[in-house]
Amino acid sequence: MAQINETALKTPGVYVNEISLLPPIVAQVETAIPAFIGYTEFSDATTQRFKPVKIFSLLDYITQFGKGEEAEIAVTVTNASLPEITAVFVPPLEHTLYHHIKMFFANGGSKCYIVSVGDYAETVDEGDDTTPLGLLGGLKAVEAEDEPTLLVIPEAMLLNETGYTTVVQAMLKQCNDLQDRFSILDVLSGDEYSDDIVSDHRDQVGNNFLNYGASYFPFLKTSLTPGFDDTKIRLTQSGGELNTQLLSDSVGSPAKTIKEKYNGMYNAIKQAIGEQYFTLPPSATIAGVYASVDGQRGVWKAPANVSLTSVIEPTVKIDNAKQDDMNDNPATGKSINVIRSFTGKGILVWGARTLEGNSSEWRYISVRRLFIMVEESVKKATAVFVFEPNDANTWTKVRAMIENYLTVLWRQGALAGAKPEHAFFVNVGLGKTMTAEDILNGKMIVEIGMAAVRPAEFIILRFSHKMQES
Predict the structure, then answer these.
(1) Between 364 and 459, where is the model more confident?
(2) Cα–chain center distance at 360
(3) What confidence tier does 161 reach under pLDDT thresholds 50, 70, 90?
(4) d(CA 384, CA 365)
(5) DSSP 394
(6) Going by C-beta distance under 8 Å and a sequence separation of 6 or more, which residues neighbour residue 360?
(7) Which of 195, 279, 379, 451 to pair with 3, CA 20 to 30 A apart?
(8) Is residue 216 scored above 70 in pLDDT?
(9) pTM of the predicted model, to two decimals?
(10) What is the tens place of the pLDDT at every residue in 34-69?
(11) Largest CA distance in the chain
């Protein structure tokens, strides 16, 4: 109902004005919507390339972007009549985004954005953000999207050290510039461990905007296997009938398909290929964990001590001695979160720190992401007050709106304190946050403080002997 100007009434009658006494509400933004940037099977230059597309399932991805890249698998057989297989070689895939999306959904992901920067005929390249080209072009394309809250570029692992450094630093910079998203990074050459690999990663991420990203190590041996395609499997039998033949070929006289003539070997090859598992960087899997934890517990819960799905084992076994330096490095402060396998527990994410591990404010991923969520939610909610009178009535509405929102968060366990006033404060007003000059310049300044809950990273149990008293 339109409001009636009561001072301008001229005709006798009864008029109704509905008076709003309740403040507007803060609508909470979603917190775990990753943007995946990489190469896809389908990538039309005019409709899909460098265009962020929102999907809700793996089927959506297949429909719009196709399936994964298929490599020609080399199988060495000793005896065709008897299923004797001596070697199966699956060459490393250059384009792996499809498999990462499978891991994302398998580990709790619900929706995400895909930015295709090319098809499988192209080589993975960092590109640039002006043309646009390559991974940097995809990163530039997602900059204009408001909804994504996570940046994930798993194919950055295929770049050289210089290209990788450029891409990850650009990811962190975008997060800092927009202040509404967070980067999940992989460690280059993360399928093995050495002090140099760890120290090189700390150099590669640079020194800027570190609280907007987190790194994970090592790579994961997943339960994903190559697709079985007769036309992509090449056989080698030294001195035998099957030499550099595709499994789909016909052999002998009369000609028969290999499946018809050597059915036992065919089935043995099928079984052997089913035991070749893909090794992938962990970032997409971790993005699924973020989504799962956010949905079940909330963004304020650290995404750690969570088991992984579709993972057989980490490629490197990390013990406490190695993780000590990775988790807490006083020299650089750049923490690297580790994925570990524990007997009887499975494979767990065993780290919850941002790259800014020496910071008391932004050490933990959950704290950084909680502030991102609250800042973005309050920012959008207060937009309705732009150009409203900068007076006590407006200040009261804004303060009440934000306090109501933070009270709900406190009740959900996101903020620490026995009472709401212990958990947060919201200040606005002349003499509190603004001077008369600020008001003359059109500024309404609101100060918000929150006591974010922090994870219990170290649980220390102190035992001692107690003297007998009776």
Answers:
(1) 364
(2) 23
(3) very high
(4) 30
(5) H
(6) none
(7) 379
(8) yes
(9) 0.91
(10) 999 999 998 776 678 899 999 999 999 999 999 998
(11) 109
Letter string b/e over residues 12-31, b meaning 16 or more CB atoms within 10 A of that residue's CB: eeeeeeeeeeebeebebbbb
Residue owning tokens 């003297």: 467
Q: Is 458 in a helix, a strand, or coil?
A: coil
Q: What are phi and psi of 101, to 5 degrees?
A: -65, -35
Residue 38, beta-bridge partner list: 116
Give the Cα separation of 280 and 308 in Å (integer).
Answer: 13
Per DSSP bridges, beta strands 336-342 and 213-217 are parallel
Q: Has residue 1 got a pLDDT over 60? A: no
Axis crossing angle, helix 97-106 with helix 283-296, rounded to the nearest 10: 20
pLDDT digits (tens, 9 = 90+) for 101-117: 999 999 999 999 999 99
Q: Which of 65, 77, 456 is nearest to 272 (CA)?
A: 77
| CA dist., res. 39 & res. 307, Å (int) | 28
DSSP characters for 145-206? -SS--EEE-GGGGGS-HHHHHHHHHHHHHHHHHHSS-EEEEE-TTTTS--HHHHHHHHHHT-
Overall CATH class of domain 34-68+90-224+278-367 = alpha beta
**Are 413 and 298 within 8 A, CB to CB?**
yes
Q: In what order do the strands lie in the sheet with 220-222?
A: 279-280, 220-222, 311-314
**Distance between CA atoms of residues 398 and 384, nearest Å:** 10
In the chain, CATH 3.40.50.11780 sits at 34-68+90-224+278-367
**DSSP letter string over 322-368?**
HHHHHH--TTT---EEEEEEETTTEEEEE--B-S-TT-TTT-BHHHH
Per-position DSSP letters for 37-48, written without gaps between them: EE--S---TTTT
* Single-letter code of the amino acid located at 429: G
Query: Could you tell me how many residues make up the chain?
Result: 470
Rg (CA), the chain: 28
